[in-house]
Amino acid sequence: MQPVKAISLKLCAVVLFIFMSALIKAASDEVPPGEAVFFRSFFAIPITVLWLMMLGQLSTGLRVKSVWGHVRRGVAGSLAVGLTFAGLGLLPLPEVTALSYTSSLLIVIFAAFFLGESVGLFRISAVCIGLAGVLVILAPKLSVFSGAPVHGTEVIGAVVVLTGATCAAFAQITIRKLVQTEHPAAIAFYFSVTATVLSLFTAPFGWVWPDGWLAFQLVMAGVLGGTAQIFLTVSYRYGDASVVAPFDYASMLFALGIGYFVFAEVPTVPMLIGAAMISAAGIAIVLREHHLGLKRGRARAVRTPEG
User: Fold this and answer.
1) Alpha helices in the chain (DSSP H)
2) For 152-166, how does the pLDDT look when each residue is reduced to its tens digit (9 = 90+)?
3) Is residue 103 a contact partner of residue 168, using CB atoms and an 8 Å limit?
């Protein structure tokens, strides 16, 4: 294991994903979410192919054993990306980032229902704290809590992003099954292909012809997204998930900076408190899963002693 290299790659992925989101947000006034998904997915495909060619694994890296698994992952992931992109046009970048963290909490719940994983009191408590953080963020948007009416677009934006986080959690649960039989590059490649195809169905609903700077933004969003996915995948080769995964939450720092300096978005106190609660809950879950993994490993070693 090379933890420093793993963390560096993960931070590079986090930064690239945030810059991708910033480019999509900047284009959101002119480009509908479905079209943004097309550019994000289509221009990520050659990045994945080039990566496999450099590794000499093009012939094996794209083989498929579970077609329907890729379909489920592709549909859920496409919905997650599209809804998140829609949310970027309605909410500040840091708020979208914070609410997107909800997917890591929902994964715990979905794993119990769909994968039959046991979930103890610790992780249930962490999920509850994280969901309470979501309520802290949402409270100012609801007149019943804030005492004053708010813009309906903010409520819609929050609902859209949370729905996207739910789809992302379902996609991650599907990936947990796929990684047992599929190459990581195949998972990324066929997701991009599926998202590209599905996004085309939104073309009749207001696509625009981008030119100049707008076209550059959209193409770069795809390139950055594809590159970030590779960095993310490779980071887990050099470090344990318990070391690498918590750095997902570093994206909030970059989101706050870009939101403030690029989009003039000043974070609110409830948003910061809620984001801290969600992040703490997510990190606690990661560390707990690592601890349980070590215990299971020791138990297996006891049952199957060398000799």
Assistant:
1) 3-27, 33-42, 45-55, 58-61, 67-88, 93-100, 102-114, 121-138, 143-146, 152-178, 184-200, 213-238, 241-244, 251-261, 269-303
2) 788 899 999 999 999
3) yes
